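Record pair follows.
FIRST:
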Amino acid sequence: MRFRGLRLLRVGGIQIVIDYSWFVIFFLVMYTMAENYFPQTERQRFTTPQYWLMGLVGATLLFVSVLLHELAHSFVALWQGIRVNSIRLFIFGGVAQVSSEPGSGRSEFLIALAGPATSLVLALLFGAVSIVAYIAGGARVVAAIAQYVAIANFILGLFNMIPGFPLDGGRILRAILWDRWNDMARATRVVSQIGNAFALFLMVLGVLQFFVTQSLLSGLWLVFIGLFMKQSALGSYQAVVVKAALSGVPVSQVMTENVVTVDWLTPIDELVREYIYKHQFTHFPVFNRDELVGMVSLGQVKSVPKEVWVFKQVRDLMTPLDDVPVLKPADDAVEALTRMASPESGPMLVLEEGRLVGIVSRRDIMNLFRIKSDLGVA
């Protein structure tokens, strides 16, 4: 799978990805600490370069804290038998991409609680470091940075306990309601409504802050967070509705059976002219005579300069079959949709005993959902 962003490292088999938007919040945090927080709290004890260095260290430690928060969720998910593919750090924090949702309210409760608990433990640890450094007297810089990171982790832990989606507190509340009602959809709807209400509150608060205190940055930040929460709360409920509508539907019911295939010796210019333009598909299974050998996509064609299309063949840029994600006809459509959750994921081949029987895309699956919605059965 391809990731948009920078691959940082792998921890316990989990790929850590830094989204490009994350650098915006990193710089804002560093700037705020260097130009406002530390000069005010330390009463001009240090020089401007020293404040910026303190800001850099503080922002880095806060970044590590957010990463540990997400890793805590992920490790508990792994313990509960849920595969975690990656953790993406972006402007509003972090999100883990998992292969499936928790199977019970108890599992979701443990997974959701792990993040805030980790943040509060980190707040205690950094708070202890700050106190020891202040008492020692000769480590003022360490004390100031540790105090900031402790406060930030404490706020992060408490903020995430707000009982509304997409925050951890919302997932904890959903887990409790789910376990009590034995109805995940109903629990999700209630918690999404709470998250939506809190999102509106943040947006109103941001507007009021701008007009009352003339603080443009703080006001806009609250509005953006509110918009993000509102969108995420709606998306969380929609995801549950989709899952309920498609649960039990096999891939064979939504896949395209009449698959357009291409020979691996086909020149790239012919692939574009006779396949991509003619059929208007973006992915094609590749065969070497009667043997399925891989998949070629529009994205791979775009990576080749047009002037060499006539000299290159499909086999020169296709993805080998071993690296192509595949499904079985009996696989659940919800599982297929989950595996195609990434924006970079394309259609998946459907194989039965090694034989190609179809191809399925997100569009195929969502078309069935839309039909069920129009008929009032979703």
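SECOND:
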Amino acid sequence: MTIIEYADMIRADLVIRKHHNQCQRWTASFEHAETKRGDVDIMLTSTYGEGDTVNQAINNYIDELKGKIIVLNSTSKTNRKEYGVPSTIEYEA
């Protein structure tokens, strides 16, 4: 499964940003998503990928997500969702 197919499945937007004031650094992340640390909600972490190119940022983000649980809209009482990220997820540019 590609990250684009996964984004469609969980209905999340993959946001790519170019940081013009930081040596042209790129970042990638799902909008309103955090990763879970362990089985409890005590610690949610903002996770993103970064790189010198769009492809590097997306691939770095995939490496950070593989096998983890992502939480979308963590503070919402009605729209909060949790999804496991497959360890086989990849990016095809």
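COMMENT: The chain has a mean pLDDT of 91.
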